[in-house]
Specification:
Blueprint: E1 5-8, H1 10-14, H2 23-32, E2 37-41, H3 47-56, E3 63-65, E4 70-73, E5 76-80, H4 85-98, E6 101-106, E7 109-112, H5 117-126, E8 131-132, H6 135-145, E9 151-155, H7 158-172, E10 176-182, E11 185-190, H8 195-202, E12 212-216, H9 222-227, E13 230-234, H10 239-244, E14 247-249, H11 256-264
Parallel strand pairs: 1-2, 1-12, 2-3, 7-8, 12-13, 13-14
Antiparallel strand pairs: 3-4, 4-5, 6-7, 6-9, 9-11, 10-11
Length: about 270
């Protein structure tokens, strides 16, 4: 197989551990990076991606953050799409009524109210640390500064997040993307962007989606895998993703992405 661009999700896909890439993955990316672009595509914030870029030796490539809501090329901002404060107010009101905690993200800012076990896991997984303050204070600060959220994370019990997901889908499903990360987490992103739309924006003259191979594991990767030239799901991916993928590789913990690159990518 020959492609011009390789795009990969991080958590549950390229990362063989909770917070890093393996030596095998580094070696395979090093092998192909002179012959094709390698672009990291994630729901993560920028500083939770750039250390992985450094480890892989692809700091000269752009990164797609927040499921496409923020695209950076080094320190240069190529695209930024924020959710409105009005949407944030609605989500806050609903979360308060259900006892759900919010994580609020804007560029490299991450705010939470409490240092919970879930937040500590996120700190470990992403190598980033949030600022702790009341959500209402963050909303007021953002209103004063005229900024919105690139991502909103809802963290609660399965029952609470089930209820919240159904209610948000009814209220805001036409305006926002809603993703179930797992049974207790909901990620919210702007509706007008996605991983796929971000990849399309980065295509240069002489490049099309047919020139792209992409790897993923979760619902927010589905559109990307469906529409690029070749979509590969890891074995631990959601069943819905595996059904639409062109191929299935090993689990992320077994270096599925690196193994597929080694076996199939010709340079």
């Amino acid at each position: 197989m020959k492609f011009k661009i390789l795009c990969s999700d991080l958590d549950g896909t390229l990362l063989s551990s909770k917070n890093n890439v393996s030596d095998f993955a580094i070696a395979e990316i090093q092998r192909i990076k002179s012959a094709m672009k390698v672009i990291l595509v994630s729901a993560r914030m920028p500083k939770s991606m750039t250390y992985l870029q450094r480890n892989l030796g692809i700091e000269d490539q752009p990164i797609i953050c927040y499921n496409g809501a923020l695209i950076l090329d080094g320190k240069k901002e190529l695209s930024s799409t924020e959710m409105t404060i009005g949407h944030l107010d609605e989500i806050y009101d609903l979360s308060e009524s259900l006892g759900i905690q919010l994580g609020l993200y804007h560029k490299n800012e991450w705010y939470v109210e409490e240092n919970t076990e879930r937040v500590r896991k996120e700190i470990h997984h992403t190598q980033s640390t949030p600022l702790f303050r009341d959500t209402i204070e963050t909303i007021k600060d953002w209103k004063d500064r005229g900024v919105g959220a690139h991502k909103i994370m809802l963290m609660g019990t399965k029952e609470a997040t089930d209820t919240a997901f159904a209610e948000l889908a009814k209220q805001l499903g036409q305006q926002l993307h809603l993703y179930r990360s797992n049974d207790t987490l909901i990620e919210v992103a702007p509706r007008s962007v996605s991983k796929l739309s971000a990849i399309q924006m980065l295509l240069q003259e002489g490049e099309t989606l047919e020139d792209v191979i992409a790897f993923g594991d979760n619902y927010n990767d589905m559109e990307m895998l469906q529409h690029v030239g070749y979509g590969v799901a890891v074995a631990n991916a959601r069943e819905e993703l595996k059904q639409i993928a062109n191929a299935i590789t090993l689990k992320n913990t077994e270096d599925g992405v690196a193994q597929f690159i080694k076996n199939h990518i010709i340079i």
